Structure formats: structure tokens, C-alpha cells
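User: I would dearly like some help making sense of a protein record. This is the protein in question:
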Amino acid sequence: MRYVIIRDDDTNAFTPWECLERLYRPFLDKGLPVNLAVIPEVATNVKLPDGRPEGFLPSRNGSGRESVPIGENSELLDYFRDNRGYKVVQHGLHHRYWEFEEHDHATVRKMLWRGTSRFLEAGLPKPATFVAPYDRFSRSSFTEVANQFQVISTGWFELRRLPFVWWPWYVRRKLRRHAHWSVPRTILLSHPGCLLSCFRPYSTMLENIVNQVQSRKLTVLVTHWWEYFRSETPDTAFIGFLHQTADYLAANEEIQVISFEDLTRGSIQLD
């Protein structure tokens, strides 16, 4: 059996529930769980280093408010409650650029707790999985996140960023060439890049997904809801590839789509 986790990043207080519905209705109808990495209190003026506005706020940059908590999108929260196939995980705090490259332990703990508090205030369950904005962690952030979450999902791991006590497990993972690994009380997952992305060639997108899924026991497929609605216009071709992915995953009896929560129950071996 091969396992796949769908991880969609950047849902926030300004995300229209209709966008998620259009993207993921085929998954939900097929019983395939979708993990949404939700920004607890999104900053409204997030920009990339080159000054371009972040894509998950296509029409909200320049808002008079500095940040908006997820609890203020009542329609989105109602949509979550009506569709239990969505599994919510914590995606940073404000999603400012590299915000979890912070080195002060107390500051990281404060950010983590504030983010979780925003979830609880919104009536969302306490998350067991954490995703850092831009997949960037400092050594201090790894330590503090692992103290509070059972699963960390990121793009890659670098020895120089890991807590020193994790180094033996990391070296063992490298020697065994495992994509995923664990330390006491925490599962550490990597992913093969954003295979479902508008910045990749559409002609080979599904082929690359199939190859990745077939090459490993567990694959985390990462995408971003807003890439399908650039300039607030649906990219029907790109949406079509997402739905083809759902068809492929549902039709293959040797593939099981799971949630991050499923890993915490201990019944699935990573490699």
C-alpha cells in the first residue's frame, strides 16, 4: 500500500469558501481527506522580498488592519463544519516572510500559542500538525514546534537548522535515504516540491505526480488554492489537472489517501 497526503496551503480569513468547494468537491465526494494549512491570523500586507504581494491576498493588500484572525470568516468556518473531509493544520501565525526563522525560543513559543489560540477561538480543533510559511525553520523553531505538535510537514531538512539532539536520527535517515523520519514524540515529513503548481508545466504535471507517488511509500502532495484563481479568475485547465489527480488517487486500489491525523495513530509506517 502507498499513502498520499493532500496538503493545500494558505487558507486564511480572506479565502472564499467557494474556491475550496470548486477545487475539492471531487475529493470530498470520493472520501479523500484534504489537509488545509490554515493561517491563524493572516497579515494583510505580506509581500515577497522583491516587493510583490503574496498571492493568497490578491485583493486585500493595503488593508487598514494589520492582521485578521481566521475566526472572522464565519462562512468559511461553517463550510468546514459542514464538510468533515477537511482536516485543518496550523500554518505559521501571520505568514510573514520567514517568520519561523526566529531564534528566540520565548518568541517562537508565543507565536505558536497565539496561532493555536486563534484556532480555538474560531471553534477549530487544536491542531496536531504544523507547517511553517515558506517551509523555513530555525533550530529554535524546530525545537519549540516539536514540543507542541506531533507532526511537522516541510519541504526539506538541513542539518545546520536541526536541534543538535536530532542529529543522530537525521544521519540515520540520510544513510537509509528515507524521505520521512521521526524523533521522540514528533513525525517529520518532507515533500517533493509543489507538484500541483501553476508554475510547473501542465503537460507533465499528472505524470510527475504518478511517478512520485509510485516511487515512495508516503507522498505529501502540496498545492496552493490561490494559484488556481490568479487575479481572481479560475484557471480551468489547472483545476482540471487537480481533479484528474483525484480520479487517479481514488481509482488506484494500491493507494490510500490519508490525513496527517492518521499518522499520529501509529498504524502507518513511514518507510
In short: The chain is about 35% helix and 20% strand. The CA atoms of residues 93 and 265 lie 26 Å apart. The radius of gyration is 18 Å.
